[in-house]
Amino acid sequence: MNSSNDVIVLGAGIGGLTLALSLHQAGIPCRVYEAVPELKPLGVGINLLPHAARELCELGLQPALDKVGVRTKEAVFFTSHGQLVFREASGTDAGYDWPQYSIHRGDLHAVLLEAVRKRLGADRVVCGHRNVGVDQDEQGVLAHFAAPDGSTLESVRGAVAIGSDGIHSVLRKQLYPNEGAPRYSGVNMWRGTAVHKPFLSGASMVRAGWLDLGKMVIYPIRDNVDGQGNQLINWVAEIHAPQPALQDWSRPGRLEDFLPAFKDWHFDWLDVPALIRSSDTILEYPMVDQDPLPRWTHGRVTLLGDAAHPMVPRGSNGAGQAIIDARYLAGAMKELGVGTAALDAYDAVRVKATTEVVLTNRSNPPDTILREVFERSGGKRFDRLEDIVTMAELQAISDNYKRVAGYDPAALKARPSFL
Ligand SMILES: Cc1cc2nc3c(=O)[nH]c(=O)nc-3n(C[C@H](O)[C@H](O)[C@H](O)COP(=O)(O)OP(=O)(O)OC[C@H]3O[C@@H](n4cnc5c(N)ncnc54)[C@H](O)[C@@H]3O)c2cc1C
User: Fold this and answer.
1) 317 CB near ligand 1 (under 6 Å)
2) Nearest one of 280, 290, 257, 270 to 217, comparing CA atoms
3) Which end of the chain is more exposed for a tag (fewer CB within 10 A), N or C?
4) What is the reported pLDDT for 384?
């Protein structure tokens, strides 16, 4: 069934599919094994910052992304009273060589999946194969699988195995059996999409309010969805809550659990309660992450994306860091061959880099801008922003995050391609 030289990729999410495309670009054969019987375009909005967009552009996917996503023009921060706090250009509008995309996760996933099927062949993504463990010896790995009905499937030999199986990674559990469940950050999220006319620049990513009383992230993810110029707007409501919601990406949420926090958010640029009420579906999910691991690579197996470094979604870097892992790993295999040397080189660089992102997402992500203003103003209206905080302080928060996450404009431009 399978050549023993293949790279075995476990999980066909954003990271796994990017890895497959990148390995193909490097001339390295691989096969992707996915648990669900059929891949569907699931989720809601995701932001791809220029460092991640660069990688997809280098895979030749820019035209496909331009067709389905929105090129973000600016990041704008408001208080819960609708007072402007900070505004900064994004993507190519900020002088980057690569865009920032606001995109439906399902659209991004579909772009990647279509490219994998077209470039590598449809048989390279094998669905209905839930990985249940990996054995290894000096020659290679043997990955074991279960079918959706729980029955055992034939095991598969490969050169190395990469666990890109998301936040509930089976491979991570095998490598770290004593690790606890994902760590709740104390914030629950409700997410949804609604059709609405463009607001602000028509491509603005808005963050508003603060977690104590209620914070919102709002941005368009599809243009002209109805032939009349309306967009699909993604929103996320985030509120401190003692109890986490269940960790299920498709769990429905209830309006009454969070809408009261935003009932007065009628701004001249957007009526937030009306937007929320007009949404088709509302999903609920807790903000969780895991303490960074000391090591992902163990001989011929390693981890990638959420399996390696789940992070709280406060910096638009979950999908982005998975994409960068994939590109770096494929580059290492191209240079060092498919084996332990490449997996060790990947571990040496990416564990350290993503540890800093995970920890900064907990403590000082970009929305720290809102925390500073909320705490210093006591959450009240202010007359003059400059009495509370200086623009230089806010810019420093934004710039620090860019440096940590790897999209400082000058550093990104200077960095050579991974492949
Ligand atoms: C259904 C779904 C909806 C999501 N919706 C959003 C969203 O709306 N917004 C957001 O910011 N993030 C969302 N995410 C998470 C987001 O995709 C990731 O945080 C990020 O893109 C990192 O990607 P990843 O490839 O590491 O993980 P994921 O994209 O989560 O992909 C992991 C893949 O592995 C598969 N898998 C799991 N266990 C096994 C196993 N044992 N064997 C084989 N395959 C396995 C999963 O089915 C999935 O396809 C969603 C994830 C999923 C799976």
Assistant:
1) no
2) 270
3) N
4) 97
DSSP 162-180: EE---TT-HHHHHHSTT--
Estimate to the nearest angstrom the gap between the alpha carbon of 331 and the chain centroid: 21
Atom 5, ligand 1: residue with shortest CA distance: 43
Instruction: Verify whether ligand 1 is closer than 6 Å to residue 36 (CB atom).
Output: yes
31, 32, 34, best to mutate for ligand 1 pocket (most atoms within 8 Å of CB): 34
DSSP-based three-state secondary structure for 13: coil
**What does the DSSP 8-state code read for residue 35?**
S
Give Cβ neighbours of residue 222 (< 8 Å, ≥ 6 apart).
68, 69, 70, 104, 107, 231, 232
User: pTM of the full predicted structure?
Assistant: 0.97
Tell me, in angstroms, the distance from the centre of ligand 1 to residue 251's CA: 14
Query: Is the beta carbon of 253 within 6 A of some atom in ligand 1?
Result: no
Q: Where does residue 13 fall: left (phi above 0), alpha (psi -120 to 50 degrees), or beta otherwise?
A: beta
| Centre of ligand 1 from the C-alpha of residue 302, in Å | 17
* Per-residue pLDDT reduced to its tens digit, 216-267: 999 999 999 999 999 999 999 999 988 887 777 778 999 999 999 999 999 9
Which of 33-47, 208-222, 236-250 is least confident? Answer: 236-250
